[in-house]
Amino acid sequence: MSNTSNTSRTQNAQKPRSSPRAGKSSQTRESRRENQRDSDQEDDTANRRPKPMEVLRHARGQLAELTGMQPESVSSFEQTEDGWTLEIEVMELARVPDTMSLMASYQVELDPEGELTGYRKVRRYERGRADPHRQGGR
């Protein structure tokens, strides 16, 4: 019996052992590669300027969240050196008939990534009335 136990000890001693460090090393390299890929994707996303339609949709959502009023239309949309400027029309007060509803125009300022940095009401009007200040192209 002792001969059998000696044989198994000898065989175990002769088997090449894989170093636990070798496994960790390859796992570490793979982990680093994955982290680099993730970092590259984040950089691409961070460096990518949003498309105009993305900015427009996001601005409407941000204004609705801040004011509690749903935007009806965007009457002006412009890219500036500092980001974006929009003029968004909202219904402030619904009336019957609809042409008597009170509307408001908000000037909305966004940073280059499309995040709202400020807004202000620039005019208030009845839906069915022409604005005398805006006739004739300003």
TrEMBL record:
Pfam family, any one: GvpO
Stretches with biased composition (Polar residues): 1-17
Annotated stretches, region: Disordered: 1-55
Name of the protein described by the UniProt record: Gas vesicle protein
Biased composition (Basic and acidic residues): 27-55
GO BP terms: gas vesicle organization
